[in-house]
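Final report, Chapter 2: Outcomes

The project's central promise was a pipeline that accepts a single protein chain and returns its three-dimensional structure in a standardized token representation, suitable for archiving and comparison. That pipeline is now operational. To close this chapter, we reproduce one record exactly as it appears in the project archive, with the input sequence first and the structure output second.
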Amino acid sequence: MNNKLLYNSNILYPQWVVGFIDGEGCFHISVSKNSTMKLGYQVTLEFSITQHIRDKELMHKLVVFFGCGYVSSDTSNKLQFRIRNRNDLAKYLFPFMDNNLLLTTKALDYADFKRVHAMLDNREHLTPEGLDLIRKIAASTNRGRK
């Protein structure tokens, strides 16, 4: 697939974006109670970048750059760019990240995030063993990483 179709480099430079993600991005894996789910838990994936509200224009440029996601208020003075849709993660974020490698330990968080995404695609979260593994992966990412 042609990289020009994956993101809009007329908006932001791809290497700047990947560096910004290295410093400010978050690959979040959530396991929360939901009685409507088979095992009583729901697994949610979210990629986000949080910034002060003064950088609102930049946050909206990220939506245009990736061709997906949205901007929401985190607090009265913070905004978040978020991608939660699993199809958008696979179609837009993953190809970009795979072609523009992170340089910090955040690369490990991305690898775990992508691994859990594949587990969801394979419906592994619907088994007690799969759900337990996802919980362990989630606990070892971001601030839980040693």
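Archive annotation: The radius of gyration is 16 Å.
This record, like all others produced under the grant, will remain available to the consortium after the project formally closes.
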